[in-house]
Amino acid sequence: MKIALLGVSHWHLPLYLPGLPKNSVVGISDDDLKIAAEFAKSYGCPVYRDYKQMIMETKPDFVFAFAPHYRMKEVAEYLLNQGVACSMEKPAGLNAGEVETLYDLCEQKKGFCSIPFVWRYSDTVNDLKHKYLKAPITHMSYRFIAGPPSRYLATSKWMLSKKTAGGGCMTNLGVHFIDMAMYLTDCTTAEVLASSYKYASEYDIETYATSLLEIPNGASLLLESGYAYPMSEEQKRENRWTIVTENGYYILAENRLELREYGREPVMVPLNTDSDVYYAEYTRTTLNDWMTGTTPRASLKEMLDTAKILDEMNAKGVR
After folding, report:
1. CA distance 46 to 36
2. Which residues, listed in sequence order, are joined to residue 25 by a DSSP beta bridge?
3. Among 66, 150, 198, 297, which lies 20 to 30 A Cα-Cα from 269?
4. Which residues lie closer than 8 Å to 250 by C-beta, 6 or more apart?
5. From CA 300, how far away is CA 156, in angstroms rounded?
6. Average pLDDT in the 65-72 region?
7. Of 151, 163, 148, whose CA–CA distance to 68 is shortest?
8. How far is CA 161 from CA 146, 188, 205, in A?
9. What is the pLDDT of residues 111-120, one digit of tens each?
10. CA-CA distance, 207 to 196, in Å (whole number)?
11. What is the sign of the dihedral through the CA atoms of 147, 148, 151 and 157?
12. CA 47, CA 26: separation in Å to the nearest integer?
């Protein structure tokens, strides 16, 4: 298998690397050749500034693609038109219109394009869906607060502009939990009731955001995301989920699932609530899905469903 890594200055890239087969990387590209060269040392492969040149010369079987949000549509279109299977970092485009164009092209070309909604690939969420949530969900609340926007200045300043990123914390962080809500309820749409976005920095992206939605099965959904957490080596973010069903109350936080069901004693179950560890599993599963002809657990279809909801949230939250 020949794998190329496209846009390696993206901060998620190192999380994927443990999932790659040994001696599989044949090319690395990035606008910053110095960063590309650092990654290439481990693989002994050529580096490129022009990703199209990399694709033409190395002829990879599969590409893990990363790019500034405003260039994602261009990159994915090129790979799909070349018939190259790929993983595209979310959100795959600046808005639902761009993602829909990619989805239509992928369907037309019968291509393979997976999206790293990594919670779908985790035992945590799959155990939650199939093992613990045995009664209909009536409410979900997700809070995911990461570090301040200044952390993007070093390699990804484009993240700090709505023009090049599409949005702030909800576009970057909230999409994972829009998708998770759809996955846990087997829905593909949601009505956005309200959004409140806060702009607490010199950048024109929201740095704290809340949205209230209703899912077709009647469940309510509260999403909260932010660039606000004072990071440390030990603690990088706050990640807390609350799910209410007709049977009781479920809390996930600090690597633990708390089950509080009516008529039963509370139960504490160890579960990993750190999404970082699931990127390697996503990488391995995605490559296996491609090799076996299996549809990705998260594809451009799931990205499009999420992007449509995100667009409506952003429209209602704009200042």
Report:
1. 9
2. 3
3. 297
4. 128, 132, 133, 241, 242, 243, 244, 257, 258, 259, 260
5. 24
6. 97
7. 163
8. 18, 29, 6
9. 999 999 999 9
10. 11
11. positive
12. 9
Apex 307 CA angle, 306 and 313, nearest 5: 95
* Amino acid residing at 160: L
Please check whether residue 255 is in contact with residue 274, taking contact to mean a CB–CB distance below 8 angstroms.
yes
Flag whether the pTM goes above 0.90: yes
SS (H, E, C) the chain: CCEEEECCCCCCHHHHHHHCCCCCEEEEECCCHHHHHHHHCCCCCCEECCHHHHHHHHCCCEEEECCCHHHHHHHHHHHHHCCCEEEECCCCCCCHHHHHHHHHHHHHHCCCEECCCHHHHCHHHHHHHHHHCCCCEEEEEEEEEECCHHHHCCCCHHHHCHHHHCCCHHHHHHHHHHHHHHHHHCCCCCEEEEEEEECCCCCCCCCEEEEEEECCCCCEEEEEEEECCCCCCCCCCEEEEEEEECCEEEEEECCEEEEEECCCCCEEEECCCCHHHHHHHHHHHHHHHHHHCCCCCCEHHHHHHHHHHHHHHHHHHCC
Length of the chain: 319
222 pLDDT above the threshold of 80? yes
Q: How many CB atoms lie within 10 A of CB 165?
A: 23
Q: Which residue has the higher pLDDT, 274 or 14?
A: 14
For 26, residues 6+ apart whose C-beta sits below 8 A from its C-beta are 2, 3, 4, 45, 58, 60
Phi, psi values for residue 196, rounded to 5°: -130, 115
Lookup: tokens for 89: 């970092």
Q: Given the structure tokens 């990640």, which residue do they identify?
A: 239
- Exposure string of 185-200, with b = 16+ CB inside 10 Å and e = fewer, is beeeebebeebebbee
Cβ neighbours for 222, distance < 8 A, ≥ 6 positions apart: 139, 140, 141, 142, 210, 211, 212, 213
